[in-house]
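re: ur question from earlier - yeah i can do the single chain one, its not a big deal. heres the input i used so u can compare w yours
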Amino acid sequence: MVTMVLAITLRAQDKAYDRYYEGLPFKMNKVIQPSFPDNTENITAHGGVGDGLASNTAAFAKAIDALATKGGGKLVVSRGIWITGPIILKDNINLHLDAGALILFSDDLDEYPLIETNFEGWKAIKATSPITAKGAKNIAITGDGTIDGNGDAWRPVKKEKMTNNQWNQLLRSGGSVNAQGNMWFPTDGARDTYARVDGGGRPTELSQLTPAQQNANKAYYRPVMVSLIECRNILLQGVTFQNSPAWNVHPLMCENLTLDNVKIRNPWYSQNGDGLDAESCSGVLVVNSSFDVGDDAICVKSGKDQEGRDRGMPTKNMIIDNCIVYHGHGGFVIGSEMSGGVNNVWVRNCTFMGTDVGLRFKTTRGRGGLVENIWIENIDMTDIPTQAVLFDLYYGQRSATVPEVSEGTPQFRNIFMKNITCRGAATAMLFNGLPEMNVKNVSVENAVIRSNAGIVMNDSDGVTFKNVTVLPKQGPVLRINNSKNVDATGLKVAPGSQDPFVVEGSLTINVKLPK
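and the output i got, formated as tokens:
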């Protein structure tokens, strides 16, 4: 009987998301939703106290263990402020936050042991994440409450990202400033480790650190807030995730992941304050959600350099629908760690307001990886400080020489965009391909972009514009350099435009312009 009830529940949950697959431009199995036994435990039954003072680390562990012995179920967190150290989710557990419930993670860094894990696409030392699940199946975080990672206890802050009053207030709070006086750290150890490690390599084994070093330097190894590793059938629904030490939500090598109606927030000054980083995941739904963060908002990754290529797990079969980004370095982003590849992604019905870049594709030589079959439609953007659309294969790196094509050569191809509106950007579009590996086969259809500068295209092959209007305040509508097989006949030019097209570069061939 229990098995039958679970099966019926599972089918109902799956059906609720059917509409997101309508018109899907690639074949994809529907994302499987988690299901749970009809068991409920309240955190208060296991010693939990939501007074904002008591530690609930033990209470969360006891409650999860009690549910696990019954085969799983719902752990209810009632209204209140629940201080706790790390929470480890297990199979068949739904962590449910009632309206008004706030899980606030402790600022006592001793509660977060250092571990060997993965960050920014390769092996790394990090402190234990506030919420962790590894190898778990059928897990969820649901409800109307808030999860706060207490990120200010961990994060460094750049002076340039604050007003003078904010900076002075931060200095009065304690912590340490670097020798240049332009970066604040919560501890001396974090400051010293940042200067040493980021200037010349990064330790990847705990055996390289003595216990004293681990304790003194722990703030440097700030964790992602929600770390889901090799998990299956995951639902994040309704909850607000905010104020993470580093990335906010990081599913790594997961299958069947749904984010629905979540709010992901970080202060805009937060270092590495990404919203969602889906890395080497398969079967992902991100719908009805909002992001307001200090780095990339909705980000797709698949490992970094040789480690990512050796893992060989692309992020694939992903749908992003009806999402809003209020702030971020990029609204929708692929890269820069995409060495395992990305394919079959559909992004539609999204709004980006004030993101540094709108649609951002970034990588660099040495990454390798193939990004292809990306469909983007119905995107509205306003007040973009840089590019509405960016392809940058030189991210963080420039070289005067052109290397041979190798496994470390990244590739972006077969990317289709339509129904794009942007009111206000510094540059409409920037294509920065590599001479040895152009950005290939990009289609832009039905777009209107108002910007300071028009489209700049370098080292690209097979770019097509159809019914596209770009209204730059100055300069040409389209500047082409060392690109080929460009069809710009569908690019509309405002009456009276002077020299709307500039074509240059010895490698430029087969360019079609409007008559």
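The first helix runs from residue 2 to 16. not sure if urs matches, ping me
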